[in-house]
TrEMBL record:
Gene Ontology CC, one term: plasma membrane
Name the UniProt record assigns to this protein: Putative ABC-transporter permease
Subcellular location: Cell membrane
Transmembrane domains' residue ranges: 49-69, 81-102, 122-145, 157-178
Record InterPro entries: ABC2_TM (IPR013525)
Membrane-topology annotation of the record: Multi-pass membrane protein
Length: 183
């Protein structure tokens, strides 16, 4: 085991240790953020499901019916374009939600920063947790649409964690940098 004096506070190993030791705090803050986003709305947390569902319905109508867009001649169904487009938007949404919020994370949570000793490096993880929640709900909508349109789920869905891991790490690095620059 490496001593804490050897590992610099900004090293990747220190960030992993901080994540592991603060995982309950990160989970609670991310849960609170997701719930507070929909507080006061008519449908509450159900919006996290209906928003991607309606977005996919609009994309399917616009690109399949209005524009008659197709990726290639071999596509079997008219909704394939919308499904592929929605999959790309889903991945982009994870990145965009975290990077857009990153510069204001520390300033926006001044009560945590000033009142107690608070691990600031957890704030980008909270934003990532909320983004991943919305991405998982959107993924459920995407897989449901895939099942309805094509009648089967792609086998490649099992590779999703391998694809998302580098995206999450890149996004977290940028979020830490931007949150430090935003102070």
């Amino acid at each position: 085991m490496l001593s804490s004096s050897i590992v610099a506070s900004g090293s990747p190993l220190a960030m992993v240790r901080s994540f592991v030791s603060n995982r309950v705090l990160i989970y609670q803050l991310a849960k609170r953020e997701v719930i507070s986003r929909y507080r006061g709305s008519l449908m509450g947390l159900a919006w996290s499901f209906f928003n991607p569902l309606l977005m996919l319905a609009v994309y399917t109508f616009v690109f399949s019916v209005v524009f008659n867009a197709r990726w290639s001649v071999e596509t079997a169904h008219r909704g394939d374009f919308a499904i592929i487009l929605f999959a790309g938007i889903l991945v982009h949404g994870i990145f965009a939600e975290c990077v857009i919020r990153a510069p204001t994370l520390i300033v926006g949570n001044a009560s945590y920063v000033k009142r107690v000793v608070f691990p600031l490096e957890t704030l980008p993880w909270v934003a990532m947790g909320a983004a991943l929640f919305h991405a998982l709900v959107s993924l459920a909508v995407l897989l449901l649409a895939q099942l309805l349109i094509r009648g089967t789920l792609p086998v490649t869905v099992i590779y999703l964690p391998l694809v998302l891991f580098p995206l999450v790490m890149l996004t977290m690095g940028l979020a830490w940098m931007l949150s430090a620059l935003g102070v």
